[in-house]
Design a protein that fits this description.
The structure holds three protein chains of three kinds. By secondary structure, chain A is an alpha/beta fold. Chain A contains three helices and seven strands, in the order H-E-E-H-E-E-E-E-H-E. Chain A has a single domain (4-128), classed as NADH:ubiquinone oxidoreductase Nqo5 subunit (Beta Polymerase, domain 2). Chain A has helices at residues 4-17, 40-49, 113-123; strands at residues 22-24, 30-34, 55-64, 69-77, 88-96, 101-103, 126-128. The longest helix of chain A has 14 residues, at 4-17. Chain B is mainly alpha-helical. Chain B folds into two domains: 1-32, no CATH class; 35-160, 3-Layer(aba) Sandwich (Rossmann fold). Chain B contains seven helices and three strands. Chain B has helices spanning 2-8, 10-18, 22-32, 46-52, 88-97, 109-113, 144-160; strands at residues 76-80, 103-107, 135-137. By secondary structure, chain C is α+β, with helices and mostly antiparallel strands. In chain C, the strands form three sheets. Chain C has a three-stranded antiparallel β-sheet. Classes of the chains: A alpha/beta, B mainly alpha, C alpha+beta. The A-C interface holds A 26-27, 29-30, 32, 54-58, 60, 62, 73, 75, 79-80, 85-86, 88, 90, 109-115, 118, 122, 135-139, 147-148, 152, 154, 157 and C 36-37, 40, 42, 44-46, 49, 80, 206-210, 216, 221, 223, 228-229, 292-295, 297, 304, 306, 308, 310, 318-319, 321, 323, 327-328, 330-331, 360.
Chain lengths: 157, 161, 361
Amino acid sequence: MLTIAEDQEIAKRITQQFPDIKVECPLPNRIDLECPPSITPTLAAYLRDVEELDHVTSVTGIDYPDTNSIRVTYHLSAYAKPAIRRLVVSMSVNLPREQPTMPSLLSVWPSAEFHERETNEMVGVIFEDHPNLNRLLLPEDWNDPPPLRKDFKLRGR
Amino acid sequence: MIGRAYVGRLSEAIRKVAASGPLRYVINWGALYSLWPVHLMTACCGAEVGAVTDPRFDVERFGVLQAFGSLRQCDLLIVEGTVTRKMAPRLKRVYDQMPEPKYVIAMGSCAITGGLFFDSYNVLPGIDSVLPVDVYVPGCPPRPEAVIQAIMMLQEKIRRS
Amino acid sequence: MSELVLNVGPQHPGSGHFRLIIHVDGDTITKAIPDPGYVHRGIEKQAEYREYLQNIPLLERPVISDSNGSVYAYVLAVERLAGLKVPERAQYIRVLMAELNRMMSHLYWLAIYGIFLGHSTMFMWPFGDREVLIDLAQRAMGQRLTYSFFVPGGVRSDLPDGFKDEALRAMEFLGGRLPEYDSIFVSNPLFLDRTRKVGILSREDAIRLGVVGPTLRGSGVDADARKDEPYDAYDRIEFDVATFQDGDCYSRARVRIEEIKQSMRIVKQVLESIPSGPFRAKSPSVLNPQRGNVYARAEAARGTYAYFLTSLGRRMPYRLKISSPSFRNLPAFEFLMKGSHLADMPTIYWSLDYWPLEADR
C-alpha cells in the first residue's frame, strides 16, 4: 500500500532520470507525466523496466481545437508488483492538430494494441510502426471525420 | 389439352383454397402456436428475452421455443434493442434467409425510434427503414410480461389474417 | 492442407453481435481475428452532450446485467472531481447493490455457459435463481435491470423496511443452490473434460496482454480493484479475492463461482453492520465540478472498469473515456484460440465472458 510520500519518491526518481518532463501528483495514487512525443519510447521503456508498470489500461485522445492540439494520454498500471498496484501513472503527449503522429508503444507494451487502434479511428492520431491500424469499431464505409473530434457534431445538437 | 391446362394452374388453385376458409384457419393455428424466434441478441433487451424463457416467465407454454438449430427454420425475428449502421445490412440478411411466413417484433425503444441513443452517429433511428415490423413493444427494457403480451398480440394478428 | 476462413458471424446463438474470423487448417485454428463494432453506439461522444447526472442512465446500458458495476466508477470519478463526500450509510448501500449485481451477472454467465456447452438445464436453473435476486433489486431500487440508483453523492433512496430479512433469506436460498450447480455442471465429468487444460493463459502472458477480471485471476494474479485501491466501504469488510493458478477455462469458471460465494459473504456482513444516517450528500442536481482530470476505477463483474473524466468547469463533461473490461480482454481471443481445436472455440469464447456491448460502447 502506497502513501503520498511513496508517490513522491517515485516522482522524484522519474524527474531525476528525465529532467525535462513535467511530473505532478495532484491526487493520491496518481502520478501525471507530460512529455514531448520524441522521448515517449525511452520514457516508456524506463517505466516498464525500472518502475515495473507492466500494462496499459487505456489510451485516450482529447481534441482541443482552441489550442490547436490533440492530447494523447496513456494510463499505466502494474500487476506483478503488489506494492504499486494502487498506483496509476498517466503519460500525456501534446500533438499538433494538423499532423497528430507519434511513435507506437506496442513494442514496449503489447496490451496497447487495440487501444491505439481505437484512438486512431476515433480521434485521428497516427501511431507510427503500428502493424495493424485498421477500422475496429466504426462501420467499414465510414467516410466522415473522426467522430471524437470537436468539429464533428451530433445530429441535432 | 384441357387436362394440361388444369394441371398448370394447380398451384394457383391450391393457393385460392388455402387463402380463406377452414384450411386457412388450420394453417394459421399451426403457425401462431409455434413461433420460433431467431437467436439475435442485438443489445441490452436481450437480457429480458433471456428472462422471458426462464422458469419464472416461461414463454415456452405459448409455443415460442428457443430453437438454437438454425435461423433457416425460424419464423419470428425479435429485434432486441439498438441496431447500428454496421449491423443493419446483416440484420436484413438474416431476415431474408428466414422462410415465409415470417414476423418481426421491434422490442425496446431503441428498435422503435432509436431510444436513448437517438442522437448517436452510428445508430439507426428505429428499424422501420430496414424491416417490416408487426408489433412494437416500448420500454427500456420492456418487462418480460410486456414481451409475452407482444407475442400474444402477434398471435391474435396471425389468427385474424 | 489448405486453409479455410470461417466467419463466426455477427448473428450466432450465443452472446451479442461479435464476429470472429477464424482461419482453420483441418481441425486446428491457426488464426482468430476479432471483429468488434457491431453494437458501437458512440456513448463516449454522447456523454459530452449530457449533464453529469443525465449520463448515468446512458452509462448503465453497456452492461445491462451488471449495471451498477459499470456506473460505480463514473460516480466515484464525479465525486472526486466535485469534492462530494459520501455518507457512510450510502457507502454500505452501494457496496450491497454492487455485490448483488455481481452475483446476478455471474449467474447469467453460468446460464449462458450452459447453452454454449449444450446443457439446457444449466440455462434454466441459474436464470430462475437470478429472478430471486432481481426481486430483491426491484424491492429496493424499483427496476429489474437498469436502476439509475447510484448518483454522485450517494444513492437515490433508502432501503425499504424488511429488506434485511428478505435479503438474508435470498442468500440462504442461493447458498443451497450452489452445491446443486456443482453436482450437475461444475463437477460434471463432461464439463471437466471440455474445460480442463483448454485455453491455457499463463501468468506472464496474462500480465503482458493486460487482461482483467476473472480472466486474470484464473491465471494466478490476484489483482482486484476492491483490494488494490479500496473505495466506499470495501476496506471495512472482510472478503477474499478468488484466485486459481492453472489458467485454463476450468480455473476461470471456478473463479466466478467462488466470487459468487464471496459476494454472499460481503452481503451478509453489510446487512449486519450497516450504519444509520443520511443516504445522499447534499449536492446540486446540475453539477459544475472544477476543472481537471480524474481517473477512477471500480471492480465490476467482468473486471476493472475505469473512467477518465476531463472537465473544463462546465455542466457537461469535456471528454469521458470508458475503459471497459471486455475491450481489454480482446487480445486474449487471438492468443488463446491459436492452436486449439475448432470444437474448443465456444468453450474458450465464453470463458472470457466477453460482452460485446461493453467492448464496443
